[in-house]
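Please decode residue identities from the backbone states below.
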């Protein structure tokens, strides 16, 4: 492990947050009644603008939560095992070494 990365966590949060926000906006759009007496300045839950803002809020919340949590950075490398046999003082010694 190379430690925790806030940027990778934020990216992962965006990947999860946008679809969740979009799904919440679509679900609200589907179940919300049509607003006939809404204030024109308010965000109507039965509009395309509401769906877009739901996706954007998912992006913001996902990035913030992901940055707080972080994500581990991992690096791959190969380990080459080698065996060693020795005879010392009449005894056989067997060893295993892992080299990077």
């Amino acid at each position: 492990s190379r430690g925790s990365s806030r940027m990778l966590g934020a990216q992962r949060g965006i990947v999860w947050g946008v679809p969740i926000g979009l799904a919440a906006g679509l679900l609200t759009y589907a179940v919300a009644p049509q607003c006939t007496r809404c204030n024109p300045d308010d965000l109507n839950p039965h509009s395309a603008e509401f769906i877009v803002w739901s996706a954007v809020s998912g992006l913001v919340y996902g990035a913030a939560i992901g940055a707080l949590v972080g994500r581990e950075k991992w690096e791959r490398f190969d380990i080459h095992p080698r065996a060693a046999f020795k005879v010392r003082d009449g005894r056989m010694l067997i060893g295993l070494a892992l080299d990077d």
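Observation: The radius of gyration is 28 Å.
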